[in-house]
Amino acid sequence: MVILQTLVKKFGIWVAYLAVLLLLPQLFDSILAISIYNQMAIAIVFALSYNMLLGQGGMLSFGHAVYFGMGGFLGVHTLLMIENESVYFSVMWVPFIGGLFGLLCALFIGSFSTRKAGTVFAMISLGIGELIAASSLIFVDFFGGEAGISGDRTFGPTFFGVDFAQNIQIYYLAAIWTFIATIFMYLFTQTPAGRMANAVRDNPIRAEFIGYSARRVRFISFCAAGLFAGVAGGLFALNYEFITEENLNAATSGRVLLMAYIGGLGYFIGPIIGAVLLTLMNTLLSTYTDLWLLYLGILFLLTVMFLPRGFAGFIMMHQVAWLRGRLTSLIKPYLITGLPALVFLLGVVTLIELIHTEDETLSIWGLSLTPASVPTWIVLIAITGAAFYGIRRSLPQLREAWHAANKPDGEGN
Amino acid sequence: MAILSLKDVHKSFGITHIIRGVSLDIEQGEKHAIIGPNGAGKSTLYHLISGLYSVTSGTIELKGEEIQNKPPYEISRRGLARSFQVTNIFPRMSVFENVRCALLWSRGFRYSFWHLLGRQGELNDCAMEVLSQIGLLEKASFPAGELAYAQQRALELGITIASGAEVILLDEPVAGMSHSEAENAVQLIRQITEGKTLVMVEHDMNIVFDVADRISVLVYGEVIASDKPAAIRGNQRVQEAYLGEVATHA
To answer: Where are the alpha helices (DSSP H) in B6-50?
Structure first.
C-alpha cells in the first residue's frame, strides 16, 4: 500500500498526463477535433522547447522557429526518401530525425549566438531567423521556394500494421512523442545542466564564480531546445505532410513566444497551458471571428500587464491560500468581481465586432444587433461602462480578501 | 610558499590608473584584511584576483600557478571563491538550490545532463549541512530573493564556502548590517573559514582588527603598509592616510 502511494505521488501526474493525451479522442472524435489535438501536441513540444530557452535559461529568442522549421523540412525530405525507397524505416521515426537536425542546427548556431545573453542574444536570434527565412526562398532544392515541399506519410514499413495514413493514428503517435519529449524536457530541469541554466538565468556572473562558464551552460540549454523544437518540426511534417518558409519565419517564432509567455514562463506546465490556449484560439476562435489575432494581441497585453507569470503563475499564486486552507474564502469575492469582469469583456468584444462588421446585422451571443442603430450603441456602452464601474467597486474587497487569505497564521489585521 | 601571491599588479581603465603596482603575499591559513579609503581600488583588486577584470600588467599566482586574466570559472575551479559587496545570489531559486548549485562543480557533476539531482543523496546532504552552518536550514525551500537582507548575506557566504575553496575572498561581508547582525556575521565568518585562507575587504575597523592576522592598507592603488594589526595601528603613514580619517569620521 505504501509502495502504491509512493508510486502515485511520484508518477501520478505523469500517468494522468498520458491518460489525458490518450483519452482525448474518446471525448471528441470529429475530424476537426483530431486535427486540433494534433496541432496541440505539436505546439506543446514546441512551446516547452522554447521554455528551455527563455523560462529556464533566460535567453529571449526571436528565432526559435528556425529549429522547428529545419526539423520539419528534413522531416518532409525524410518522407520523400522513404517514398523513393532511399531509406527504409517507419515514418514514426520522422520526429526523431527532425530532432537530430534541429540539434545539429543548434550546435552550429549556438556556438556563436550563446556567447552573450540579453539583447545581444535576442538580436542574433532575430538576425538568424531572418537569414534562414530568406535563405529558404533562395535554396529552392531544400526549401522548395515559396510553395514549400510536400511528402506522403503512407509509404514505408508499417508499425505492427499501423500505416499512419489516418489522422487519428498520427494523433496517437504525436501523443506518444509529446509524452516522451515532455518527460525528457522535465528530466533535463532536474539535472546539473538544467539547474545551472536557472542559475545563469538568475545571475550569470555569480554562476561563473561557482565554477561554471555561463556561455557553456547557455549553449547546452540552447542545443537541448533546438533538439526538441526539431522533434516538434518532425511531428508537424508528419501531420501536414508539407512545410513552407512560413513555418520557420519570425511570425512562427513570435507565436511560440506568445504561447510560452501567456502560459507562464517560470513554470514547467505554463507553456503546455499556453500551447493549448493558443491552438484553441487559432483553430476555434478563428472560425468565429476574423479579429481573433486582435484578441490574441489583447490577451498578450493583458497577460504582460496583469499576469506577468502567465496563467500557470496565476494558478500557482493560490498555493499559499490553498495550503492555509483559505482558498474557499476567495470564491465569493472572485464571483463578485468576475461577473462584472465577464460582462465588461463581452461588452468590449461586442463593441469591437460592431465596429468591424460590414453587415446590416451582427449575430453575437445569440443576439441580433444592428450596427446602424444608435440605441444599440447607447445600451451596449452603458452596460460595458456599468460593468467597468462594478469591477472598480468590487476590486478593493477582492484585494482585502486576498490579503486575508494569504496572511501568515495567527497574524492579526 | 604563499598560497596567493600578487606581483607588481597594475590595472588601468583608459588613462586612469587604478591599481599601481600592488605586490602581496598571503600565506596559507592566513586571515588577511585589505583596508583603505573609498576609491583606493580594493574592489578592483578583488575583481583582478577573481578574474572579473584582466590585469594591465603583473602576475597573480594561486598555489604557484598564474591565474591573472583567466576567466572567473577557471579560477573558482582552482580553489578560490569570493563574495560580493552587493548581495549576489540566485534570487528566483530556492535557498537550497542556491547552495546545491555552488556545490555541483566541486563534486564533479560539471555540465552533466544525465545525473538526476534528486537522487544525489550525498550532494543533497552536503547542501543541507552548509545551510545548517549558515543558519538557513529552516528557509531551505524559500525563494532566495525573498529572504531578509542579513539572511541573503548569510546565503552569499554559504554559496562562497560551499565548494570547499581553500582561498576565500569576502568583499565587505557585513556592509549594511545592524550591529547585532554584524556580530553574528563575524561569528559565522570565523566558523566557516576555519582552517582556510581568508582575504577580506571591510570598512568596519573593529571587525578588521578583530578578525585579521595581517592587514594591508591600500591607498590610491598602492599598498602603503602590510603588517600585523598592532603594527598597522601604530603606523604613522597609515594613520595619516586612512585610520586618522576613519577616526575623524567615527
So the answer is: 42-50
| CA-based nearest residue to A23, from A166, A234, A179, A162 | A179
Up-side HSE of residue A27: CA atoms within 13 Å toward CB? 10
Residue contact B81–A210, C-beta within 8 A: yes
Q: Which residues pair with A400 in a beta bridge?
A: none
> Which residues have C-beta within 8 Å of that of residue A187, sequence separation ≥ 6?
B116
Residue B245's pLDDT is 59
Please answer whether residues B232 and B217 qualify as being in contact, where contact means their C-beta atoms are separated by less than 8 angstroms: yes
Residue B249 is predicted with a pLDDT of 46
ipTM exceeds 0.85, yes or no: yes
Note whether B182 contacts A: Cβ–Cβ < 8 A: no
The whole-number pLDDT of residue A411 equals 55
State whether CATH 1.10.3470 applies to domain A29-301: yes
Neighbours of A25 (CB within 10 A): 17
Instruction: Compare all CA atoms of chain A with the CA of B97 and give the residue at the minimum distance.
Output: A195
End-to-end Cα distance, chain B: 38
Residues 6+ apart with CB under 8 A from B150: B177, B178, B181, B184, B185
Minimal-distance CA residue of chain B relative to A186 = B116
Q: Please state the φ and ψ torsions of residue A152, each to the nearest 5 degrees.
A: -140, 120
In chain A, what are the domain boundaries? 29-301, 319-406
SS3 content of chain B, % helix, strand, coil (to 5): 40, 25, 35
**Which positions 67-86 of B are in contact with A (Cβ < 8 Å)?**
71-73, 76-77, 81-82, 84
Kindly list the residues of chain A whose beta carbon comes within 8 Å of any beta carbon in chain B.
187-188, 190-196, 198-199, 201-203, 205-213, 216-217, 220, 224, 266
Residue B139 scores a pLDDT above 50: yes
- How far is it, in rounded angstroms, from Cα A120 to Cα A126? 10
CA distance B44 to A112: 30
Read off the DSSP letter of residue B35.
E
Residue A407, classified by CB atoms within 10 Å of its CB into exposed (0-12), middle (13-18) or buried (19+), is middle
pLDDT at position B243: 67
DSSP category for residue A246? G
Q: What is this structure's pTM?
A: 0.92
Residue B46 · residue B169 · CB < 8 Å: yes
Say whether B115 and A199 touch across the interface (CB within 8 A).
no
Q: Cβ contacts of residue A285 below 8 Å, gap of 6+?
A: A292, A295
Contacts of A197 (CB under 8 A, 6+ apart): A52, A56, A57, A58, A217, A218, A220, A221
DSSP conformational letter for B25: E
Amino acid in position A32 = L
Whole-number Å distance between alpha carbons of A98 and A95: 5
pLDDT for residue A111 = 97
